[in-house]
Structure prediction request, 471 residues.
Amino acid sequence: MSQSPKTETDTGSEQLVTLYKSRVKIHPRTVAGIFSSWRWIFVWFTQALYYGLPWLQWNDRQAVLFDLVHRKFYIFGLVLWPQDVFYLAIILIISAYALFLFTAVAGRLWCGYACPQTVYTEIFLWIEAKIEGDRSARIKLDKAPNDARKMSLRTMKYGAWALLSLWTGFTLVAYFTPATELWASFWAWELGPWETFWIFFYGAFTYAFAGHLREQVCLYMCPYARFQGVMFDPDTLVITYDPERGEPRGQRKKGVDPKSIGKGDCIDCSLCVQVCPTGIDIRNGLQYECIGCAACIDVCDDVMAQMKYPKGLIRYTTENALAQHWGWQDILGHIARPRIIIYTVILVGITLALIWGLAHKADLRVNVIRDRAILAREVEGGLIENVYRLQVMNVTEQAHRYVVTVSGLDNIKMEGETEVEVTPAASKSFNVAVRVPPEAAKKGSHTIFFDVKAENNPNLAVHEKATFLMP
Prediction:
């Protein structure tokens, strides 16, 4: 809690002025419903991918491995080299445009269902509820003295959080160091300094963010909460309370017709506030703190069903639909608006371009670098020689033997290795000398070509240009 400076009033008395809002710990109430079920589906799906992929094998190696040491990224059958960083940039651009599109259509879907902060907070809250009990039990436990029961429950909870956090950190490192090697090193106490650092570093952040900071990350640390409002428009689907139907709110007995007592449908039970992970009251209108988890919809629909009122007092709708009393047919009819069409066209175009690029990615790459220390020289027989360094990169996951030839000038020939064996997803560099008779070309630079072809696969061939200097 921040310090509050003192100010003098006109009467001479002191008044405390708070510059920062003090945090009130939030204990979200457990809720069940269709949106809660979808949230847990995404929890299981995302975590099955995250924890499972490092252990999946593909072609006798880890299916997904970002091998920084050897500068290669393996994604199932795809092998990306440093020269392929362009594809990773395109993937990031696609992710950004997808986020813009989803936000413009239906608000903070990412935040409510798939964001790691939401997912791990959900998991940590589930652990907390299993150990300490429901919302009321947790509130009582917070207020209780530090007796043996409280300390034992807290120890179990924090211990479970710590184990999950460390396993999360271990899994992150397993994407960069093969999981089987990392696991063997862990049990042999032979983890390297960087593996140890990142396991504990990422584990500590998971523990702090999901276990203790929770909604504070969404409210004060996440930039998306601040700029997502500019992607909304009056036709964006957002979680909204219907004040025309709900007001004036007030308590009443089950089954009472609200019109007969001059009330709206809202019974002022405050359950929508109790289930909110950020502690807001959705009845106050759309707020940047709302992460779009729809827990308030689930609990309100349940209350409406018990009161025998129509569901949808809190629902997904748009500003225009609420003002003009549109149905779902009208709402869906306004989805295809200019910004949505633009986002969709760009997203589809970039995605198709990425797919085409990956499908036509070369399986053989050759770099030719002329030796700059020796531009050109005369050797035995009066021949003119240039020296080159060739790097042959086998992008496939099968070993290949390549034959190297040179062309472009009369009577040109090559001295050195003319055949090279390259192992799967590896490269090999070697020097070759190219010689021509002095009468083959005039003084100056001339274009020549290196042809590299696989013996067992004629489709694996590269025609690479180089420069030959005549003194």
